[in-house]
Amino acid sequence: MAIAAIDVDAQQTFTPLCPDELPVPEGHHIAQALNQQAELATWRILTKDAHPENAVWVVDSHDKMFQPLSHPNADLTWVKHAIPGSKGFEVIPGLPRVTEYDHVIWKGIEPDLHPYGACFHDLEEKLSTGLIEWLHYKGVTTVIIGGLATDYCVKTTALQLQATKSFKVIVNLSACRGIAPDTIAESCNQMQSAGIFLASNLDDVKRLCFADSNILP
User: Fold this and answer.
1) How wide is the angle at C-alpha 177 spanned by C-alphas 161 and 49, nearest 5°?
2) Mean pLDDT across the stretch 135-142?
């Protein structure tokens, strides 16, 4: 049995360390939980948003966000965030250097693409990032997911992996933070309905990983 732990977009842009970007409450406090889940895994993966300043979805203030767009692979407006070379692009304090991960995926680098999940570069889910293929190549059977934010990129990544019917997918909620209680709750319901396991803490993660580990949900 091979286990992979995925740190989804655990970047400073999604924390109060970058208040002018997309700060998720307590987003900078998940490093320890991510490191703990990685100790259970054979492989550790990092995903990072990497957005250009001239992206088609960029607006100049937070009150202009969440407006629908007609672009096929950029659905909503957002303020600038996760620009390569900026503070926000960097991982949160306490995580390993990028080169210490086994696999890294950068997403959203094209100005007309704003994906949420780590498995596809586009919202239409036609252009693979290679994550699913890499996991298959490594013989991974169980995936533990943490990161930012629960109700966007974590949820979408988990649903994409679950849709393959190839992995036991566990979302470690203690290693995640979300934007708002209502959207977090809705996202958790969506994930559970899809057959994804939700773990409240590391002990739950361990139990799900090693008890009946060959049985998919």
Assistant:
1) 60
2) 97
